[in-house]
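Lab notes, practical 5.
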Amino acid sequence: QHNLDYYRQNAAVIAAALDEAGVWYCGGKNSPYIWLRCPNNMGSWEFFDYLLEKIQVVGTPGEGFGKNGARYFRLTAFGDRSRTIEAVERIKKALG
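Output from the prediction step:
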């Protein structure tokens, strides 16, 4: 239960940052994965490259799950809390 609570709290950290940045997303409540709509109509691989090159944050391009994932990106709550906080702060700055 402790591990589940820890990852739920990470998901809440991610969700709060995306709310603050005005990014549409779903998930993170009953799943450790948060799906977000890529900004500026970017494709998911384009957004992957943008995050990697600009802020050194990695996630999963939605296109890896099929054509319907083309404009979506997946973040995970499975991680260290301090690194999760650092990553979402970087994401907020990159999208702001």
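Observations recorded by the TA: The beta strands are 25-27, 33-37, 60-61, 72-76. The mean pLDDT is 95.
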